[in-house]
Here is the input.
Amino acid sequence: MQAYLDCNATTQPLPEVVDAMASCMRERWANPSSVHRAGVEARHAMELAREQVASLLGCTPRAVTFTSGGTEAAQRVILGAIAARPGRPALATSALEHSAVRELAQSLEARGTAVHWLRHRPDGVIDLDALDELLRAHGRSISVLSLMWANNETGVIQPIAEVAARCRAADIVLHTDAVQWVGREPVEWSALGIDALTCSAHKLHGPKGVGAIAMRPGAAIESILPGGPQELGRRAGTENVAGIVGFGVAAQAARAWLAQCTPAAPCRTLITALERAIVATVPGAIVNAAGSPRLWNTSSIAFPGLEAEAILLLLSERGVAASAGAACSSGSLEPSPVLRAMGLPDPVAHGTIRLSVSRLTTADELDHATRVIPECIAKLQRSGMPR
Ligand code: PLP
Here is the structure.
C-alpha cells in the first residue's frame, strides 16, 4: 500500500490532462504565433485553456498571462511592479513566503532595495494593526505588497481581502501567491480587489512548468522581459502550448469539483481525522498552527526531539510519501525558515513533517498513514535517534 501525502510539493496529473497534452503534442505542435492554419489551431487550443483557467479564477481570459510556473509568475509581478513606479522603490512582504518570493526579496534587499518585512502573529497570520502602522509610515514609498494566500508548509491562510482593502487605499499593488490555494478553494477575483494573483498548474493535478498570472487591467505592473509579442506583450517567448492545454483541462476539472464540493465534503475532513489520530497515539506530537485558519489539505506536525529527515526516510520505506517543510529544503538539515519565522523552537522545527492531501487522496491512503506514522515515530523514539 502506498499513501502519497505530498500534494503541496506536487500532484499527480489527471489522466485527461495527460491525454490532452499528448494529443496536443501530436496534433497541435505548431508555433501559436504562426499565421498558417496549424499555428492558428495551436493558438485556439491555447486560448481555450486561457478561458478554462480564467473561469477557475473568476477573471476574464485577457487578464491571464501564462508563465513557466508559480516562481516565474510571482517574480514577474513583483519585479514588474517595482519597475513600473520608480518613485516608489520599496517592497513589502512576509518572512513566511515561499522561497520564490522570500529569496527574491532577500536578494533585492541585499542589492539595496528597501524591503519591509510584515509582522505576523505567533499563529502565522499577518498582524493587520502592524500593517496599518507600516502603511501610515511608509505606504507612499511601497510599490508592491506580496503576501501568499495559503502557506505551503503549514496551510495557514492570510486575510487577503482585508489586506487588499488596505493596499487599495494606499495605492499599493497587491500580489498574492495563490499557488496552494487555487484549485482547493474558490477564487472570487472580482470581489477580492487584488491586483495580481499567481498560481501553478502542478498543484492542481496539471503539468509542471506552467503557471499563470491573473492581473487587474491597468495594474501598475510592467513587463520585465521584452523580446516578443506573446501573451499580449506581457511575457515574451514561445508558449508551452501542451503544458498550457494541460493546465486548462486541470483547471476545468478543479472548477467542476469546487462547484459541487461542500465544506463538509469527505476529502476536506481527511487530514483533520489523520491529525487527531496521530495526536491521540503519539505522545508529544504537536500540530503546528493548530488554532489558525488553515487549508483543509495541509498538516504540519512536529515530533519534538526527532529529525524530520529520518522520519521521512522511514515513512518512505513503509510506503508513505511526505515532506519536511518545503520540498526544496529537504535534504538540508536547516529547519525551514517559515517554521523558524513562526518562532517554533529548534527541536520542534527540526522534528516537523508536512502531510498534504488532494481531492483525490483516498480514505485507504489515510488509513495506511494513520497506522504507519505512529509505528515509525515509536520506532525512532525507541532507538533514541540523536538529532
Ligand atoms: N509558491 C508557493 C506557495 C509554492 O508552494 C510553490 C511551489 O511549491 C511555488 C510558489 C513555486 O511554484 P512552481 O513550482 O510552479 O515554480
Q: What stands out?
A: The two ends are 29 Å apart (CA to CA).
